[in-house]
Amino acid sequence: MIEELLVAVAGAAAATAVYAGAAARVVKQYERGVVFRFGRLRDDVRAPGFTMIVPGVDRLHKVNMQIVTMPVPAQEGITRDNVTVRVDAVVYFKVVDAAEALIRVEDYKFAVSQMAQTSLRSIIGKSDLDDLLSNREKLNQGLELMLDSPAIGWGVQIDRVEIKDVSLPETMKRSMARQAEADRERRARVINADAELQASKKLAEAAAVMSDQPAALQLRLLQTVVAVAAEKNSTLVLPFPVELLRFLERSTAGPQAAGSEAPAEPSSAAAVEAPLPAVSEAPAAAPGTSPVMPKPPVSDAYLKGAAHAAEGVEPVGDLTGASVDPAPPEDGA
Hints:
Largest sheet: 3 strands, antiparallel
Radius of gyration: 59 Å
Strand order of the largest sheet: 3-2-5
Number of helices: 10
Distance between the termini: 202 Å
Shape: rod-shaped
Mean pLDDT: 77
Order of helices and strands: HEEEEEEEHHHHEHHHHH
Structural class: alpha+beta
Number of strands: 8
Strand content: 15-25%
């Protein structure tokens, strides 16, 4: 009797252990358990931890609630400005309702992937190339809205969408490189012209200061000599500014102006054309001697005019050569 009782107890314990083993389930912290009893959804979603189901009657499906990172394959399309590009992206999403994710869509991961590819091609066709390259934040927000609208009915929430890379044809890359180079050259020329304008203004101010103080020009010249000599060159080029010549010219202009106020001397022509003073009669010569003509008195104006005339006459060579005929003697000579 006791033996039969022990066998019955052992059998019941074994059956209980087998039932408990078949009914026991463990749901992890990042999962939720959805129970179907005879194919019908139970309202209670099993929380993380240990849980029990009815073996052979209930079926437990575990749904991962973590954020899923899904790469979107590169999609080739034509932008609104007729440029062929290849764009790839990445989608971050998570399940917020485990029961809806199992009931509303067959495979929510595949559905999100296909919807992301379709939305990415649509965004490429609606955008310009400049938007794809420089305004990606706005395009990411547009993609997120396009994916989140249908996904929210599947119990899935789109957390973030990012465009990773935009591939351009080689011809377009070369064209963009030439455009960027031309733009940088234009900006360099504008900056250089602006620098020249500022430098010219400063030089004009410096020239005005130096014109007020002529000694500053000489000091600047000495500074230039010192700067050139510091290079230890064998040849020293000393610049001679034109402003220094003008300074010297203004310095010598004063004495010349003072001398011009003196009474002007008669010109050589006036001195020559002036009538000579009357010659007084010479005393009669002694008999048997030739008469001696007295020299007329010469004025100072005549002497100065002769000197100026002699300075203006160029020296000539000997005119008594063989090619020059002697002058015929005068009659009665």
